[in-house]
Write a structure and sequence with these properties.
The chain is α/β, with parallel strands linked by helices. Helix content is 33%, strand content 16%. It has a ten-stranded mixed beta sheet with strand order 8-7-4-3-9-1-10-11-2-12, sandwiched between helices. A four-stranded antiparallel beta sheet has the order 15-16-17-18, with helices on one face. Bound molecules: calcium ion. The site of calcium ion has 5 residues, from loops.
């Protein structure tokens, strides 16, 4: 009896390995691209004035999702993207700014659960990362730049064969000396550029260095030099269009004219294009998408108008530059005959930001159209992103927009499914829970509830309903997304039972996903509190 079982076991192993070897020949390459702080409608295939012909081309040959939701901030979104889990589960419920020494908030990606790169590499994938990491604790990064080790927290420690990019995220602002000369930071003189585990200091950068172009060079180099007999996974995380919004003058100059008309007109044009593209859900009148601007364009001073045009033109130049680099990658794939069997995914980590001044908000309102609020908020403007997916050999093109409700944690299981890699039951010596997230290529994806928390802004999206709160001192609001996808009509007082039901579900999620207790302290106070 025992020998029969053994024989069956060996036969099933042999079949499995035969299946794996057949599959291995056809396994797709994967390029996962996630930009930083770009709004929901900032691609031309989502209605933007910004021209992104290369992403539009990918979308034409693949899929565009109407509703991808993310975390509302860099670190948690990046943690969720790479692990397929809610960020609190992988210890990045907040930022890398501080280790709070409590579950959910350790300030760095847990080593107890795998990244997609750590799962793909043992299955034969070459793994490369280009761009912004922002998953290592700030204290570790600081020690690294003072001569310390990576302490197991850099991309090359977490499953990537190669890495070129900005290791930190929050420290790239531009600084000037007493004479007003630029010392470093931003896209031209980044502080924390790293290749593998070696810092590239600013004096070593070539003349006319521009970060996004250098990422494009690396992307092309990796694809060109890749051996034929192995699939690859590239995670490309541009810094663009994160603050400081700046681009080479040659890229910005042709774009200024486009923005002179002002944001009131640009909003109307953008909403009209969205309507023509079929981006609004069925039955939703585009007239519901009223703008959220705090001031009309005419109410700005001429100086403010010029400053707004500068921001809008530089921002557009950054997004168009990223698109251009993606175009170079597409051309390189095509030249090598790899394009049809490459799964390309494109998204943004969160909505456009309000960090800055009134003019930033007036620009980000346009970027996040038709939604309200910004990065860091759990309203739709903070957590909504485009999602473009292309894989000609694996996913038939579909015109219009995919309605399926997607979450950033769904990207990892989608990639694993495309690569034929099963999520493990064990990691190291420990058994690990299965993923709650789902493969977006599943022909009949289930509609699961989605939950959000960042700096005490909270939300739950369940069925047609959403509850959202702007902070611990803010009451829950209730919206019917089917009738009111732009969160205009708060139904909390007329539907208290529905609100209570969703609130109970949010509390249950928070209680089981290392979210509680919430921390009301703001950035500086919060860091101080946990470093004392
Ligand atoms: Ca971000």
């Amino acid at each position: 009896m025992r020998s029969t079982f053994r024989l069956l076991f060996i036969m099933s192993l042999a079949q499995a390995s035969f299946a794996a070897s057949i599959q291995a020949e056809n396994r797709p390459n994967v390029i996962l691209i996630m930009v930083d702080d770009m709004g929901y409608s900032d691609l031309s295939c989502y209605g933007s004035d910004i021209q992104t012909p290369n992403l539009d081309r990918l979308a034409d040959h693949g899929l565009k999702f109407r509703q991808l939701r993310t975390y509302s901030r860099c670190c948690p979104s990046r943690a969720s993207l790479l692990t397929g889990r809610y960020a609190h589960e992988v210890e990045l419920g907040w930022m890398t700014a501080v280790d709070e020494q409590r579950p959910g908030y350790r300030g760095g990606l847990t080593r107890d659960l795998p990244t997609i790169a750590e799962l793909l590499r043992p299955q034969g994938y070459a793994t490369h990362m280009i761009g912004k990491w922002h998953l290592a604790p700030d204290s570790t990064v600081k020690q690294f730049f003072e001569g310390g080790s990576t302490a197991g927290t850099f991309p090359t420690d977490r499953g990537f064969d190669s890495y070129y990019g900005i290791i930190d995220g929050a420290s790239n602002s531009v600084t000037y000396d007493a004479q007003g000369r630029r010392v470093g930071g931003g896209y031209f003189t980044p502080w924390m550029l790293v290749r593998q585990t070696r810092h590239i200091p600013i004096p070593d950068l070539p003349e006319n260095f521009f970060l996004e172009e250098s990422f494009g060079d690396e992307l092309v180099r990796v694809i060109e030099s890749h051996p034929d007999n192995q699939p690859f996974f590239i995670y490309h995380a541009p810094f663009a269009p994160h603050n400081p919004v700046e681009a080479p003058e040659a890229r910005v100059a042709p774009l200024r004219e486009r923005y002179r008309v002002g944001y009131d007109v640009l909003w109307k044009q953008r909403i009209a294009r969205m309507e023509n593209l079929g981006l609004f859900p069925q039955g939703i009148d585009a007239a519901l998408a009223k703008p959220f601007f705090e001031k009309s364009w005419e109410a700005l001073t001429p100086e403010e108008q010029v400053a707004w045009i500068e921001r809008a033109a530089n921002y557009a130049a950054l997004v168009q530059c990223v698109d251009e680099q993606i175009g170079r990658a597409i051309d390189t794939l095509e030249a090598r005959g790899l394009l049809d069997n490459t799964l390309v995914l494109f998204l943004s980590d969160n909505g456009a930001t309000k960090q800055g001044c009134l003019l930033t908000r007036l620009h980000s309102n346009l970027a996040n159209a038709p939604f309200r609020e910004f990065k860091s908020s759990s309203y739709e403007g903070g957590v909504s992103s485009p999602l473009v997916m292309s894989w000609p050999d694996g996913v038939p093109a579909r015109p219009g927009f995919v309605d399926a409700r997607a979450h950033i944690s769904d990207i990892a299981p989608t990639i694993l499914a495309a690569a034929g890699v099963e999520y493990p039951q064990h990691w190291g010596l420990k058994s690990i829970p299965p993923l709650e997230s789902q493969n977006l290529l599943d022909p009949e994806p289930s509609v699961r509830p989605l939950f959000f928390e960042h700096e005490s802004t909270r939300a739950a999206v369940i069925g047609d309903w959403k509850i959202v709160s702007g902070g611990l001192d803010q009451p829950w609001e209730l919206y019917n997304l089917r009738q009111d996808p732009f969160e205009r009509n708060n139904l909390a007082s007329s539907h208290p039972d529905m609100l209570a039901q969703l609130e109970a579900q949010w509390n249950a999620w928070a209680g089981t996903h290392q979210v509680l207790p919430l921390e009301p302290a703001l950035w500086g106070v919060r860091i101080k509190k946990y470093t004392q």
